[in-house]
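Protein details
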Amino acid sequence: MKFNVLIISTLVLLLGTGCGTVMREHDGQSSAIITFEEALVLCKTPRDVSYWITGTIKYKADETLADENRPALETVRLGYGDCEDFAILAKYMLDKHGYTTYVMAMYPPYGTGHSICLIDNGTYYNYLTNGIFVINPKPTLEAVIMGFYPTYSHWILK
């Protein structure tokens, strides 16, 4: 099977305004709100980022057939997004802590595509899909995509 790859060196993440929130627990009780700015500091691992995103951002498909790739802070401001918005937000948060990440968009020959945030540790890839951290190490990008959709033939790495 042949894969088409396009690597884009920078993904533009325009800054927006506002912040997302999630409750901070203290002694087993929710007592305060964690802002997005606090989450950027406190969420240092893919699992932390996953918990924050899934607890804060709701999944909502784009209303049109065209993908609306929102900047990370726009997704936070709105409080919702679809798969590529989740992937862009996860990349933004993980890049702040030195992770090597990519947004991978997969396009099938028919139907709708899917985007994930890949985390490259130099030996294998894990990923976040719709904000959920998946520990399923794959040694190559081809293995990642085949694990998702064996029939996908086109993908883009950003």
Summary: The radius of gyration is 16 Å. The chain has a mean pLDDT of 77. Residues 83-95 form the longest helix (13 residues).
